[in-house]
Amino acid sequence: MLTLTDVIQVSFFKRSFIWLLGFALLMSTAPLVITSADGSKRYAEAPPGSLIVSQGAPVTPYNGMVIHDGVQSNLTDGDLGTLSGASTGFIDLYLDLGRKKTLDYVAIHYARHWNKTNKVYVSDDAVNWTEVVSGDGGIGKYEYLQNTTTTNILDHNVFGAMLPANTKGRYVRISADQVYVNIYEIQVYSSFIEVEQFNMTGGVTMEVLPGFSVQMKAEAQPSNATNQSVTWSVAPKPGSSGMAVIDAATGFLTAITAGTVTVTAEALDGSGVAATTDIVIRESIEQWRSMELSLMSSKTYNDPFADVDVVATFTGPGGIQITRPAFWDGGRIWKVRFAPTVTGTWSMTVEADPSADDTGLNRSSAISFQATPYSGVLDLYKRGFLQIGDNDRHFNYNDGTPFFYLGDT
To answer: Helix (H, G, I), strand (E, B), or coil: what is residue 292?
Structure first.
């Protein structure tokens, strides 16, 4: 049997639960949705994270619609204080978004009650149209309208409609059987953030030797672009004999002949954005100058730092050998940096331990290249790397010349 205390406690917890539930719904980031009078179609606000993609879009009257009370560019100028309108008995116009886009939402800011059927269409060519929204704005219906109580034709209102999933089009058309309509703004939204530009890199120096490879990278801007995938291509720079091949999916470039090649990264999000950069394929590397090469593993490692050791062996004139460890650079890429200590013919082999079956990280067939005398003016490259002098009290260049380091503030 419930006591009075039990009843009070149950009532308290019930009220608390209802209050918390209401607060949670109020604070939700979901689009605001208002049920229309007949419960069938609803006004909605733009979804969080979506952006207006129609600002500045050209506006074209359709099917003989006559524009008055302001130029049609007012409809996409981003200013809710400017307007355009029609007095021909109907509204029928379309916006050109410039290219096909994924679309989420349409809002129309207007005055004078839209009391008939209002429709939204999309198209790829401004000829063949697909209807995506149709709502009755009549009194008592107010489908897709923000203000569902007004009877004054002069009241401002907003037609706001979520579009069906996967709606795409370059052109967005608005039609309504209205008389004397003032429209302040037509806003088309998309949650799909397009790539605007790429920052391209290809190793430290943007140089490579024939037979060696470099991993190209394209960093998309903005960084939150929805689809940052690219397709890669490479071609000789006009007037150059340079040749290279590149993996269209990964951007892994292998040099073939000396010269300059132009690498292109093109966005796959439909934005049409592309970026290019030049890679110089050197005939040789100068003594003491650093070179960088990339290796792409044929296997995937759970812990690249611990699962495999990759070592490149460089063999130079007179049988001199220098080993250089490769370092993991993310994904399936390892990199090796090396500077030849003498001029002449060098060769390189690579071994991965314990992954002898990794065809990308093992190179048993030597790749040869030439090291030539340094032709610049920097002592570091003219005289070689620093080393400790014979008496352990000073530094020398590799050729024995004393090294004096001066600092100033």
So the answer is: strand
In this structure, are residues 359 and 330 in contact, taking their beta carbons and an 8 Å threshold?
no
Tens of pLDDT, residue by residue over 275-291, are: 999 999 999 999 999 99
Question: Are 336 and 260 part of one and the same domain?
Answer: yes
Domain at 313, CATH number: 2.60.40.10
Query: Rounded to whole angstroms, what are the CA distances from 370 to 36, 164, 362?
Result: 78, 62, 22
Q: Which residues in 83-112 are b (16+ Cβ under 10 Å) and which e?
A: bbbbebebbbbbbebeeebbbbbbbbbbbb
Q: How many CB atoms lie within 10 A of CB 369?
A: 20
Burial 154-175 (b: 16+ CB within 10 A, else e): eeebbbbbbbeeebebbbbbbb
CB 89 within 8 A of CB 68: no
The structural domain count of the chain equals 2
CATH assignment at residue 166? 2.60.120.260
Cα separation, 76 vs 83, whole angstroms: 10
Q: Rounded to an integer, what distance in angstroms lies between the CA atom of residue 190 and that of residue 211?
A: 45
Strand partners of residue 63: none
Segment 246-263, tens digit of pLDDT: 999 999 999 999 999 999
Closest CA to 289 of 205, 407, 381: 381
Q: Cα torsion for 336, 338, 343, 344, to the nearest 10°? A: -10
Q: Is residue 124 over pLDDT 90?
A: yes
Print burial letters for 43-76: b (CB count within 10 Å at least 16), e (below 16).
bbbbeeebebbbeebebbbbeebebeeeebebbb
Is 328 exposed, middle or buried (CB count within 10 Å of its CB: 0-12, 13-18, 19+)?
A: middle
Token pair belonging to 266? 């093109």
Instruction: Residue 195: name the closest of 300, 99, 127, 83 by CA.
Output: 99
Q: What is the dihedral of CA 124, 126, 129, 134, to 10 degrees?
A: 110
Residues 149, 269: one domain?
Answer: no
One domain, residues 143 and 265: no
Give the range of the structural domain holding residue 330, as residue numbers without chain letter.
197-372
Asked whether residue 124 falls in the same domain as residue 263, the answer is no
CA distance 167 to 310: 49
Q: What's the pTM value of the predicted model, to 2 decimals?
A: 0.73
Of 119, 191, 186, 111, residue with least CA distance to 154: 111
Enter the tokens of residue 389. 């002098």
CA 127 to chain CA centroid, Å, is: 31
